[in-house]
Write a structure and sequence with these properties.
The protein has 764 residues and is of the alpha+beta class. The strands form 5 sheets. The chain has a 7-stranded mixed sheet with strand order 14-26-25-24-15-22-23, with helices on both faces. The protein has a 6-stranded antiparallel sheet with strand order 6-5-7-13-8-11, with no helix packed on it. It has a 6-stranded antiparallel sheet with strand order 16-21-20-19-18-17, with helices on both faces. It binds adenosine-5'-diphosphate and magnesium ion.
């Protein structure tokens, strides 16, 4: 049985860990594919569950210092804590917090030691320059005796993970960034220790004044501090999920056996009648059965205005009732609720890899071994070439400094954090605005979009057309004509059909029973009433059927953006009605904003050409393609793509599914109660296309953040490694003190994570 599971990973320290874990897991028999994400510290593993299971997979990587957290809740809890536990969110958050506390204690213990070391170094430097006098020999002697002890504590207690990295390297040949730091600081320590222990023996051969205990102490202190700050901000990058989890109500008030009882939200079943009091959270998805209220959906859809909901309207879990009270029937519970799906989608998206990361991953994977080689080459070069100019003792000392510097500065950490942290923040920010992004690849692609295709009905217009004119060409009374039309439309789901049926219902006219009903795609419908076959639809339908009709009769109306529905028998047209839809208030501004972003907007619609053009002209749309059948929508998208355009298609996600799938980015728009969020790359909840503008801006901001991060991560290694290796020493006499390497390394990861966090605060 093939099985794909996402596990949380414990013990990850850097991006190169990801590739070590990936490689080790891939080798295991029964494992089909593995994707490890450093940003979320998760592994998505596809495996054959007959050959291997989670705990055995975990055993295989435990010797390397990692383990998998096995999630075993089998149903999505509705209680926030259980829900979180199932998703592995809170659990790992609690663990992370305790890990953070542990890190903090260690950092706090090592900082004073680092300050003493820096103070000593500074004093020595300043006294050499004659700025301060030499330290009193007693005091100096005391410090010199203390340094080895401080370094021992620092390396073996605070630096334990790095020593383990060295151990794993020697034992299993697997190196990660801990290995680099470990080898560097251990080398400085062992060199110094040898000098302290064997000073008298070594004196004839080399300068025994210089020890590097301070390097060990300060480098470890900086890196520990950096890792602590990084971990602290990394927890912050993921807080969008936590906020979503907190939207979930813990209990629900339901009617069971005629009594009102409060039950845990997981116990709510389909069909339960739930009571919602003023100010309460909606516990599950459902449909109002009695009462009405305004409901604040802003947390789920990002829409600021509370929406009025009455009997028959859908409501979703996690939204907030205002002052009314009502009862509703539970239709979706547990993992089926929109909120549960959103949480899952956000989590998946945050854990997915953006294509732009592939390069950073490739580099991280080969980075550690390459750096090890460079470090040893550096040491060798100093000893061989340096010694002939500077003498062995000095060359050894410089060589060691360079060796440690290279190992410390070359951490691929910033490189590994650059993409995932920005994606996590970007996806989370989107979710808060009602912009649901399926995966990182979609978010990445979105910023390249240059053409947006929109549907007219429901996207540019509100999608609730009303009947506004009746043109009767038959002997029937007007009411009889619309009644007849409504009897046919009654079976259709098209918004136009609702307009006709609503009109007839409001006038309390009769709606008859149609038989042999059939929808005619993109044109209208057919059906029989009392044995007579009728057709209803657009001008194209009438023309294609060869029914005599002068379409210019429609022009007067279509020029005003109204859509005709023509009723005919096989022989003749009986009359037509006009339906009109209101333009969404935000459409015009959104189109203007898209233009500002350099994006062309094309409207595709099955509607009448003139009516479509009229609407388009009102909102400033560049191009209209009218009278398109669903399959033509696909063809139009393909045509644009073949011209090299990157096309985003915004549609209702249900009817337009094939077109959404063909587009480079499919954008489904829905009100929250009716949207299938898995159907498109991006789902805009409860919105108009102004949200699309926000989504594109979000993508641009996130990509800019990633590129900045990658740039800094690279530039810093490109300059840092040669500088630390002493490549500039022969020219300028520059040699990087490993302490600055440690500082730079710590700073680079922290700055990358903070840069990603900035995405949170940018206004869309
Ligand atoms: P759109 O979503 O752009 O309206 P459709 O393919 O759903 O595209 O419909 C295309 C056209 O076919 C409509 O604009 C309308 O003129 C006609 N049509 C479709 N369904 C009906 C219907 N039930 N009654 C009347 N006309 C219809
Ligand atoms: Mg449609």
């Amino acid at each position: 049985m093939d099985n794909t599971t996402t596990f949380n990973i414990k013990g990850m320290h850097c991006a190169s860990c990801a590739s070590v874990i990936e490689k080790s897991l891939k080798k295991i028999d029964g494992v089909l594919s593995v994707a490890v994400n450093y940003g979320t510290e998760t592994a998505k593993i596809a495996f054959d569950s007959e050959k291997i299971d989670g705990s055995r997979l975990s055993k295989k990587i435990e010797p390397l210092g990692y383990s998998l957290a096995i999630r075993n809740a089998d149903s999505m809890g509705m209680n926030a804590d259980e829900h979180a536990a199932h998703l592995g969110v809170n659990q790992s958050k609690n663990e992370k917090l305790s890990e953070l506390r542990d890190m903090k204690t260690k950092v706090m213990s090592v900082i004073p030691l680092a300050i003493i070391s820096i103070f000593l170094m500074a004093w020595e430097g300043l006294s050499k320059l004659g700025i301060v006098g030499e330290m009193a020999p007693v005091i100096n002697g005391l410090f010199m005796a203390l340094l080895p002890l401080m370094a021992t504590y620092t390396l073996f207690v605070v630096g334990r993970p790095y020593l383990l990295g060295v151990y794993r390297f020697l034992r299993y040949g697997k190196a990660n960034m801990d290995t680099l730091i470990g080898i560097g600081t251990l080398a400085a320590f062992l060199y110094s220790f040898a000098i302290t222990a064997f000073a008298d023996t070594l004196r004839p051969f080399m300068n025994v004044q210089n020890t590097y205990y301070d390097v060990t102490i300060v480098v470890i202190a900086f890196i520990a501090l950096g890792k602590y700050l990084e971990a602290k901000s990394k927890v912050k990058t993921g807080d969008a999920i936590e906020k979503l989890l907190n939207l979930q109500a813990k209990t629900a008030l339901v009617i069971r056996d005629g009594k009102e009882i409060e039950i845990p939200v997981n116990d709510v079943k389909h069909g339960d009648i739930v009571i919602v009091k003023p100010g309460a959270k909606i516990p599950v998805d459902g449909m109002i059965t009695s009462g009405s209220s305004y409901i604040d959906e802003s947390m789920v859809t990002g829409e600021p205005m509370p929406a009025r909901k009455k009997e028959g309207d859908g409501i979703v879990a996690g939204t907030m009732n205002t002052s009314g009270s009502f009862t509703f029937k539970a239709t979706k519970v547990g993992s089926e609720t929109l909120l549960a799906q959103i949480i899952k989608m956000v989590e998946d998206a945050q854990g997915s890899k953006a294509p732009i990361q592939a390069m950073a991953d490739k580099i991280s994977a080969v980075f550690v071994p390459i750096v090890l080689v460079i470090a040893f080459l550096t040491l060798g070069t100093w000893l061989v070439v340096g010694a002939s100019y500077l003498g062995f003792s000095q060359a050894l000392s410089f060589g060691l400094v360079s060796f440690v510097g290279v190992l410390v500065i070359a951490c691929p950490c910033a490189l590994g954090l650059a993409t995932p942290t920005a994606i996590i923040v970007g996806v989370g920010k989107g979710a808060k605005e009602g912009i649901l992004i399926k995966d990182a690849a979609t978010l990445e692609k979105l910023h390249k979009v240059d053409t947006v295709i929109v549907d007219k009905t429901g996207t540019i217009t509100i999608g609730r057309p009303t009947l506004v004119d009746i043109q009767n060409l038959s002997d029937l009374p007007d009411n009889g004509l619309v009644s007849l039309l409504a009897s046919l439309e009654n079976k259709s789901e098209h918004p136009i059909a609702h307009a006709v049926v609503n009109y007839v219902q409001e006038k309390s006219l009769t709606i008859g029973e149609a038989s042999n009903f059939e929808g005619i795609q993109g044109k209208g419908l057919r059906g029989s009433i009392k044995g007579v076959e009728y057709f209803a639809g657009n001008a194209k339908l009438i023309k294609d059927l060869g029914i005599p009709f002068d379409p210019s009769k429609l022009d007067l109306f279509t020029a005003q953006g109204k859509t005709p529905v023509i009723l005919a028998t096989k022989e003749k047209v009986l009359g037509f009605v006009m339906v009109a839809d209101e333009i969404k208030s935000a459409s015009k501004q959104a189109v203007a904003d898209l233009h500002k972003l350099g994006i062309k907007v094309v409207m595709l619609t099955g509607d009448d050409e003139r009516a479509a053009r009229y609407i388009a002209s009102l909102v400033g749309i560049d191009d209209v393609v009218a009278h398109v059948l669903p399959q033509d929508k696909l063809a139009k998208i393909k045509e644009l793509q073949s011209q090299g355009k990157i096309v985003a298609m915004a549609g209702d996600g249900v009817n337009d599914a094939p077109a959404l799938a063909q587009a480079d980015i499919g954008i489904a728009m829905g009100t929250g109660t009716d949207v299938a969020i898995e159907s498109a790359g991006i789902t805009l909840l409860g919105g108009d296309i102004s949200k699309l503008v926000k989504a594109i801006k979000l993508s641009k901001i996130t990509m800019r953040g990633i590129k900045q991060n990658l740039f800094w991560a690279f530039i810093y290694n490109i300059i840092g490694i040669p500088l630390a290796a002493g490549a500039f020493y022969p020219l300028f006499g520059w040699l990087l003190n490993p302490i600055f390497a440690g500082l730079a390394m710590a700073f680079s990861s922290v700055s990358v994570v903070s840069n990603s966090l900035r995405i949170k605060t940018v206004r869309l």
